[in-house]
Amino acid sequence: MPEHTIDPLLPLAFIGGGNMAHAIVGALVRVGHVAHHITVVDPNDDARLRLQQRWGVTTLAEPGPALRRAALVVWAIKPQQFREAAQAAAPYLGDALHLSVAAGIRCASIAAWSGSARIVRAMPNTPALVGQGMTGLYATPSVSGDDRRLAEAVVALTGEYLWVDDEALLDAVTALSGSGPAYVFYLLEAMRDAGVALGLSAEQALRLATATFAGAARLARDAGEPPETLRERVTSKGGTTAAALEVLHAHDVRGAFVQALQAAQRRAAELADAFGR
Fold first, then answer.
1. Sheet holding 72-75, edge to edge
2. What is the SS3 assignment for 106-126?
3. pTM above threshold 0.85
């Protein structure tokens, strides 16, 4: 994946000062971005104080003329608040590139509310909070190559990214990686509880499960082989792994996962329809 740098003096603005904004702002400051060139708008006093004290950035309770100098505006706001926030900020946004990490708000809605067609829509996931995220990206036709590189540079601070060429595919990204950490946590819960039933302590079982997930994911990423091959390699005929997989096959766990992701994709589209009105 290409590496890009950000001019440390580039004026940046964040609409919303929650966890995702905090993660990106913190990553920017750690790599040398000048804090007072970052402005965060959030009506919540605690959120603003937290950002000021931790990172030294400029904060505003509401949009104002200071936003006009921003070259990039990052929308890190709850979907149900997006329309009101965008309409309030629109008079001050100038010619900025817009990067939205708000789930379910389509580019057409962002353009209508903000008055800009230069939009990159991102679908991150919660591991971005620890620099291990996976983000899906989509750009409108008005986004230039330089715009794309700037968006990549910002998103790369939180982990990996993947471009899609059809905005509708972000609903699939939401279903797979956006909601994906919850599936992993669900399986970790199940493995922990199974370990306890087998006689381990909850702490022992969870440590074994989390380390196994981390190691298997790293192996799958680095091995250069499909997961089917890796699975077959640790599944001896008549062995313990085969016995476990037979139970999973009998309960059609694979089919249940497909249905789960289809349900998440449908819900993502429904929420986009609802929030974009």
1. 58-60, 38-41, 12-15, 72-75, 97-100, 119-123, 133-139, 159-163
2. CHHHHHHHHCCCCEEEEECCH
3. yes
What is the DSSP track for 211-262? HHHHHHHHHHHHS-S-HHHHHHHT--TTSHHHHHHHHHHHTTHHHHHHHHHH
Residue 139 phi, psi (nearest 5): -120, 140
Residue with tokens 């505003």: 60
Under 8 Å between Cβ of 67 and 73: yes
Residue 2 confidence (pLDDT) above 70:
no
- Long-range contact list for 236-245, CB < 8 A, 24+ apart? none
Amino acid in position 77: I
| Contact assessment for residue 74 and residue 40, using Cβ atoms and an 8 Å cutoff | no
8 Å CB contact between 153 and 5: yes
| Distance, CA of 13 to chain centre | 18
Q: Return the H-helix or E-strand segment holding 16.
A: none
Neighbouring residues of 14: CB distance < 8 A, sequence distance ≥ 6: 21, 24, 25, 38, 39, 40, 41, 73, 74, 76
Alpha carbons 66 and 55: distance in angstroms, whole number: 19
DSSP state at residue 178: I
Tokens encoding 14: 């964040």
Q: What is the pLDDT of residues 124-152, one digit of tens each?
A: 999 999 999 999 999 999 999 999 999 99
Q: Per-residue pLDDT tens for 206-256?
A: 999 999 999 999 999 999 999 999 999 999 999 999 999 999 999 999 999
